[in-house]
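stuck on this one:
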Amino acid sequence: MPILLLLAVLWLAAAPASSTAHARVDRTGFDNRQWVIAKGDGSGIPEMPFEARVDGTSIGRTSLLTFASRVTGTSRFPQVLVIASSGYLRIKSGADPSPPLPFGQSLVLGPAIFASSAGFPSSTLFFNPQVQRVDVGTGKLHRNGTGTLSIRIVARDSDLPTTSTNTNQIMDLSWNLALDEPSEAQTRLDVDERYRFTERAIPDPIRTAELQSFRLFQVSSMFIDAARHDVDALRYRSSGGPVEIHYSPPQANSLLPASPSPLAGGSRLVDSIHTDDVGQPNGNTPSYRFRVQRATGPLSGPLTPRAFFNDGQDLNDDNLGLWLYRRPADAIDVGAGGRIGFSVLASTDPLPSP
């Protein structure tokens, strides 16, 4: 399971907005007294910086782009979203308690695939992209702070080292995101993924049998024990009823659930939840709820949640992964592709069971 060092600086509040009455876009970022978009410290991220643009104006290159939204009636601007050049996104609700609520888990932009290809004859996990450009549009924001930020992320099969196993080594990828004005308790992000294979890929048959060769999207977080975790349970509804898997150390180094079951026919919800206020070092971190709208392409069969965590003890590293699986074709030709659409709600408390 790949791991990514994510710095504590990601969850610190952004600087207060300026007193100017109009939006400002320059090489440092964007500020309209309701939203602050700025380049962050991405020194711990291994992928190269990407170009960031706001309303067509370049604000330079960065490995981390941060989005902070003003809490209504205050001068506080907690971050609600960060985008890393590794394709990791962290999301949290709009109003921070005191002390501030950290981010916890990460959404990893997909799809990901365990496969071989012309450039990688041995089975390889293409886990996350190398983001190359992020374009932010503010045209749907309103003066009162409501509205939606439009975000387009691009990761093409170009300019990568030949040894890179980023997903855009064998695919052209893009994501259209809509970030709604957050509420005190929730932040919603809508994601429309588009992918097209640029190399013929053969999904690993063993990983396919384990329901992990094609991952529509992933969550990366930490679980070490009952006192040290970002999330502690996976939850969804199967045809047999509610499924809730609470992680525990004896489950390390094994795929979960032990007996996998797909989502119920009418259900499209998967929860990655933090059910208590205990886990350290991150405390009461946000829970995520995913709602899947579509999953098209060289895929068939039902949607099935799967998880895995290793027994690593480093509190700076993620060791828990959760993904949603759909069976890929035995061989995926150049030019094959599709769309994956879903929303994610980051909430201060777990939502009711799906």
